[in-house]
Amino acid sequence: VTYDAAGDAETTRRFCTALDEPGEALLHLLWICEPDHSQHTLELGSPEHREIIAGAEQCAVEVSDAVGRLRARRDDVLFVIASDHGHETIDEVIPVNALLIEAGFKEGTDSRDVVLASSGMGALIYLSDQAADRRTAIAEWIRGQAWSGEVFEGEELEQIGQRSDTALAIAFSMAKRDVANRYGVRGLSHVAGDIFMKSDAAGLGQHGGLGAYETNALLGISGGGFTPGRSGHPSRTIDIAPTVLRHVGVDYNGMDGEPLPRD
Predict the structure, then answer these.
(1) How confident is the model over 242-260, as pLDDT tens digits?
(2) 248-258 CB burial, b ≥16 within 10 A, e <16
């Protein structure tokens, strides 16, 4: 199975075949790589991008049809369809690692005193024990950069679901602009340059920060007693697992998330 739209179509076919066959499994899970995979190498809203989205939608339709067949056999199906994030258009790739060295905070490109882990439109900074006292100075320096957005350090990391008792010292989102690209898709953001992500380039898609569009994920639930319609109740990705566990009668106590209300 290939890592592309064709592979997604084949994976979906096999998944639906498994749903159609009688079995004792309580949970069936399907993950497809599109449109996320191609959005990193395409302009958002372009004809090529829309074709990829149409293929992903077709996969969703096929699964929905298979769920319908299960329900026709009187199976009590909780059908959840979700994305883990959205995308925004890359405005500019910023060489944050090199800038940390230039500013005197990091010893060298491969040094372990200060380690930058880019997530695309955001990044994490880890500090060694010897560099721990640089945290506040680095955070203040980042806050003063035009390419930076929100910055979190120390105990502030807890606000975004990160631990504050490890080598992770700083997290930050890159600067955003609420404007449209040439295809009318809103949301532009700088990207923290990543030596492992050579494909990042202005005009293409990315995510990994706190922008309004990159964090605008999809969640749809049907069955399991959920009332049809749009819900205004806040939801998080960590709420999906306990929602599923509640449906199949498995204890979810101790999880970070909580089951979503059915109405």
Answers:
(1) 999 999 999 999 999 999 9
(2) eeeeeeeeebe
The single-letter code of the amino acid at 233 is H
Distance CA 124, CA 140 (A): 15
Contact 84/218 with Cβ under 8 angstroms?
no
Q: Tokens 């807890």 appear where?
A: 158
DSSP letters along 194-221, please? -TT-TT--TTSEE--S--TTTT---EEE
39 membership: H or E segment, kind and range: helix 36-39
Question: What is residue 96's predicted lDDT score, i.e. its pLDDT?
Answer: 98
**What is the spatial distance between Cα 98 and Cα 103, in angstroms, rounded to a whole number?**
9
43: helix, strand or coil: coil
Distances 126 to 116, 119, 132, 153, 222 between C-alpha atoms, Å: 7, 13, 9, 11, 41
State pTM to two decimals.
Answer: 0.91
Q: Which two tokens stand for residue 153?
A: 């350090």
Instruction: Pick the more confident residue, 198 or 254.
Output: 254
Q: Is 192 helix (H, G, I), strand (E, B) or coil?
A: strand
Residue owning tokens 């969640």: 219
**What would the two tokens of residue 146 be?**
């035009």
**Which residues, 6 or more positions from 202, have their beta carbon under 8 angstroms from its beta carbon?**
90, 91, 92, 93
The DSSP call for residue 259 is P
13, containing H or E segment:
helix 5-20
Cβ atoms of residues 90 and 199 within 8 Å: no
User: What domains are there in the chain, each with its CATH number?
Assistant: 5-87+215-248 (no CATH), 88-206 (3.30.1360.110)
